[in-house]
Fold:
Amino acid sequence: MCYLPLGEGVVIYISAILGILAEIDYDGYVMVELDGTSKAPYTSKEAAAISKRYLQSLGQTFLK
Structure:
């Protein structure tokens, strides 16, 4: 087992988790790990970019 960027691994309920946070008006941070991967392989920066694009596809926005 290795780390993969969001949208490429086995956790398939990310949108549901984010929906629950929205329902309770959560206004804090959500952390995404920046680990590199051995399966793909991706560097930490590449994995973070893939995870960010995935979260954006779910309608999430980011601080600048």
Residues 14-57 form one domain. Residues 44-57 form the longest helix (14 residues). The mean pLDDT is 84.
